[in-house]
Amino acid sequence: MSLPARLVLEDGRVFHGRSFGAHADGGLETVAEVVFNTSHTGYQEVLTDPSYCGEAVTFAIPILGVYGVAGDLDAQSARPRAAAMICREVSRHASNYRSKETLPAYLTRHGIPGIEEIDTRTLTQHLRDHGSQLGALSNDATLTDQELAERARQAPRMEGQDLAKLVTTQAPYSWTTGFSSETAPWSDGLPEPVAEPGSAGRVVVVDFGVKYDILRHLVDHGCEVTVVPASSTLEEILAHDPQGIFLSNGPGDPAAVSYAVETVQRLVAAAPCPIYGICLGHQILCLALGAKTHHMKFGHRGSNHPVRQASSGRVLITAQNHGFAVDVASLSATPLEPSYTSLFDGCLEGVRHKSLPIESVQFHPEAGPGPHEAAEFFAQFAAAIQAAPSPSPQQAT
Amino acid sequence: MERSASAIVIGQACEFDYSGTQAVKALREEGIRVVLVNSNPATIMTDPEIADRTYVEPVTAEVIERIIEKEKPDAVLPTLGGQTSLNVAIELAKSGVLAKHNIRLLGADVDVIERAEDRQAFKKVVEEVGLESPFSVVVHTNEEGHAAMETIGLPAIVRPSFTLGGTGGGIAYNREEFRELVDSGLRASPRTEVLIEESIIGWKEFELEVVRDRNDNCIIICTIENIDAMGVHTGDSVTVAPSLTLSDREYQRLRNASFSIMRAIGVECGGSNVQFATCPKTGRMVVIEMNPRVSRSSALASKATGFPIARVAAKLAIGYTLDELQNDITGCTPASFEPTIDYIVTKIPRFDMEKFPGTDTVLTTAMKSVGEAMAIGRTFKESLQKALRSLETGHLGLGLDRKDRWGTPEQPNRQEITERLARPKPGRLFFVRYAFKAGFTLDEVQTLSGIDAWWLGEIRQLVEFEERLFAVRGSELDSFTPLILEAKRLGYADAQIAHATHHEEQAVWVHRIANGIQACYRLVDTCAAEFAAKTPYFYSTWGEQSDDLPSTGKRKIVILGGGPNRIGQGIEFDYCCIHAAMALREDGYETIMINSNPETVSTDYDTSDRLYFEPLTFEDVMGVIAREEPDGVIVQLGGQTPLNLALRLQAAGVKILGTSPEDIHRAEDREQFSALLDTLQIEQPESGTAFTFDEALQVAHKIGYPLMVRPSYVLGGRGMSVVHDDEQLRTYVLAATEISPDHPVLIDQYLDDALEVDVDLLADASGAVVIGGILEHIEEAGVHSGDATCALPPYTIPLVLMNRMRAASKKLARALKVRGLMNVQFAVKEDVVYVIEANPRASRTVPFISKATGRPLAKLAARIMTGRTLRELDALEEIVPPRFTIKKSVFPWNRFPGCSVLLGPEMHSTGEVMGIDREFGAAFAKAQSGASEDLRPLGSVFVTVRDADKRQVIYVAKKLSSLGFEIFATRGTHAVLERHGVINLRHIHKIGNGRPDAIDLLKNGEIGMIVNTPSNDRRTKDHEREIRALAVARGIPCFTTIPAAAAAVSAVERLLARPLEVEALQDVLAAH
């Protein structure tokens, strides 16, 4: 039987549960921003998504771990990145032909703590009403609630934090596998490669915490992918002679990644090729072009978020995971125009440059987890690369 | 569509009442004039105020064409009324009727419906979009079937095309079964078409509810996972929402496939349902089928998520897009999103197979359940136990109750457990528990049952938890209070905890409340609390905080619903509960509905001010009462379920509105009731009560055979029987004591050949009583009143007898201090009026009478229960219906091959239809047609009756032959008819006495109608059973009583005279 554990929010609100995963038998002391996610499926993807770095994720679905943890194909990065997992119930037995281990075992192996038996609905309501906040997780019965609340209050806030630097790659690398090139017992239903490998052109992905599914999509759309660190300079990026540049998703406050904002500013000015971005990459792009971002009250995290595509009027159900957003009003001072809008709260979910092949989305067209219908974003990127003028002789050298 | 437009909505039975009602309301909101057609009077949608024009007429192409001619609608909406309406729509389109009248089909066009429903066409579409179907072959003859078996091998699945609930299909394990299934499937299919399919038994089964709009926006409302693996019809499977054992990649694959199919089939807008199977070992996915309409699963998905699929589908059908519609639950987000939920929903089917002896109880691909219960919990274990408790089969959860066989002399052995795991029958999950208790490994249980290991693991955890309860057995409750909370969080009922720890249920209840262990209530909000929701739809769970209870300061009334549909307690009672909610809301009360049935309108979140989706047990109801603190509770409208709780609720201090539980008990207790009748000097059949066989024998000899015997406290005639001798009595008593151990066997004089009459009335506190309606049974006494065909107003009873019944009913109502509804059953024999029984509660005839008379009896009853009088309500005068109305029962015989098709004291029907017309014969013909037993005005009639009826059948036969029918009769009947000059008479061999016999003629399609009254000779009985079963399978009207046959004669006569006319209910009632 695991130890009783507590989650104490910075405003003093206490939730009781039980430890699982890492430190289940004692020594749990994690402080993180507490957020909630409403996806029914995809806990492995969420945990390994670098965008969740520094966050304790509350799952609205009341049972986690039913289908266990599959191999690398479902992983979005090399290891789990979330700070902790909060749920109503975690299953210690799993059933799925792809499952390699149970969720608690996986978390223990990777040093990620969890708390179950939490009244997650009340916690979600609390975060909804009072906004995301820092929380301290502990299974140390000697600490008072007040002490834990104080710990939470003392921790660094999400605003102003550059978390990308914690999850970005240290050195450039190339990525060559798409969805179907990885072995899986089944392959139907996975996105099919739509182009010959490398046929779309060379793409540099700036890694702010990139999800593997983004890279898989790019490969399947014929991109020859090189991933570079978040801190790469204009020169370092252009040295790869990209025909397209992709700004990845990632955690933390976009405003704090000022070096990247500057680099993107210079990239746009140089306008060597199409630039696309997702999530944090989208925010950085917008900041670079003069827009503003803000920390949202409780963010968007789930797989059921409807957005309207301005060009077609169509509604796409999208996967989302963002605690910051770009101010729609601030776009007026930029060459950008809204391309997608959230139907839940009117939040800006995508922009397009009025004259250049520059586009970005706040939601996650790569899904993982979530619906696949926005994957056309990658096709548009590939098409934009094809449509761009041939590289100048200078760049070709 | 312009606002002046009008549309026809075609309805069907129970689970489609919710969808039809939502659709009609949604269309009327848009200013569309809605014409509704549905022959089921027990539906809310056929209430005259729901649609602009309501036709309670048979749903046939012929009738609908007549309605189209009258109403001249612009469009027909067939996708919200189930398979029947879809089939009729195809027929209307194909015959050119729709084109002729320039009518559009909304929701789906004929090509779309055909592509989805025609198995071959569907398979082709599936292949075209790059998906797989199980390997299969479509056949049209037995020979083709045989060839298909050679290629596919056995076991194989046999699925007839275009049938409801998979009727006629099944799994063939051997050649003989295969031949039988193909043969019956070909007969069941309106197209004589059957699909033979590769067996994917044991695969996991999923259903996705898809909604699409005309802009091609597609959303999934809900994904339902079946616990019973492939091989058991999804309607008979225990199912869970959301799906739990799929990873995101697997789930998205199903989601993408659903959209591809929806698009390829061409459903432009509306709701559909797509079923998949996945191989648990390899993940291979195949598409099973698609319904291009709102289905039974849509109802479940709506209740499970709070998303009103039918309402949205109706709006989409007239051109809205999803983003233009609001999600009414949050009130602030659009309908274009996918509901996300933070609880687990379990649905368990309810079976009544013991009512159909002789039928195979193994579950296959043809649906056998008659209802379902749904429960919501925060964990699967909690949700499962609540759902089992909601079923009202005596189980309070998974074991640890009086039905638990473990640790009793009845404890199942390994062999029985093995068999029950391997052969899916109702209640298999109990055997999963027994298996773990008997030491089976999870792998063993998985291999035997095919149930996914995760569900089994959860059940094993419950079994492990039981040990912790046993460990404190006998200790004081105080010593294990925290364990009680743990048990509650796993869904255990107080009674289960009490059972396991050897305490009284009441003591556990009192103890936990004293220790603050109380249910908390959470909201169903479509969004897992991401947004504040406005719609008050709650479920209980434990150890959490409750969601806010809106406070309006109004007086509150709780209405207890009827729980899952079963034989004897169907939507008629749900109808009454809904009416109470409507009336009391109008009167300014806050209404609170508690129910567990996902198939009904009462569990729509906007029917009452608040909905609690909860089991109807004492503890679950008391939880809601403790939270709501209502001013009163209504128990007399939901059938026997709430009545059974009345005394206990009252003892717990709850105010029961209406007739007091003591008075209800006085009417239900045979001895008290019999004494009351004596005091009131009302005639009753001689009767007695017996607790043992010897006592029964004494009573029997005193009264004399034949006797009607039954257990006390029953609904739907459960366990009722007519016995003719000591031997039959002995068999009965030995079986009956099992049904109701606390209650004696009741023995009544059986009034042979008596006429039976139902009287429904309203009575108030001032002593005023008004007769609601008098229904004459067309079959004689002995046929359960729920099964009998009834005529309102009576068509043969002299006024003087009617008045005698009126007087007796009123006297009884006053004596029982009825406040609200009461039903009295009379038998009339030789001008003596006997009271058989009185039920001071809503009866199943209340909706029918309300429709026929235009007087909303249940609404009035609810108002009387709040203290109003009939005078105030202007309802002192009895309304005699302006038309002849016939109530005819609908039976599920088709689903229970092998059982005896015969009406008797035990109820078998699952629904009813109404025939309404200015003429008796026309009303009867319409009722027959509504029940899909159309009377054909010409052809041959097979007549064979027992000796006692031979004189009476002469009139029937004479009349029929003079109308041009050819009469086939067996020797005895033939001789009598010939003697009396019946013309067009042909002799036919009795079965076993030569060929051709009646079976041959039936099989050759030469018989259009049967008059067959049951004999007492065993061998003849077997033959009759065979004849009637064949008649049912082929939809040939079969009359088993002379009065019914006589009524049929008048109907045929009317059909020959001129075509049937249709009349809107609004016109009928206005004419009055």
Task: Characterise the protein shown here.
The complex is a heterodimer of chains A (397) and B (1072). Chain A has 397 residues and is of the alpha/beta class. Chain A folds into 2 domains: 4-154, Carbamoyl-phosphate synthase small subunit, N-terminal domain (Glucose Oxidase, domain 1, 3-Layer(bba) Sandwich), CATH 3.50.30.20; 164-387, Class I glutamine amidotransferase (GATase) domain (Rossmann fold, 3-Layer(aba) Sandwich). Chain A is built from 11 helices and 19 strands. In chain A, the strands form 3 sheets. In chain A, strands 10-12-11-13-14-19-18-17-15-16 form a 10-stranded mixed beta sheet, with helices on both faces. In chain A, strands 1-2-8-6-4-3-9 form a 7-stranded mixed β-barrel. Chain A has a two-stranded parallel sheet with strand order 5-7. In chain A, helix 8 (258-270) crosses helix 9 (280-288). The longest helix of chain A is centred in the middle third of the chain and has 13 residues, at 258-270. Chain B has 1072 residues and is of the alpha/beta class. In chain B, helix 15 (442-449) packs across helix 16. At the A-B interface, helix 3 and strand 15 of A face strand 11, helix 9 and helix 16 of B.
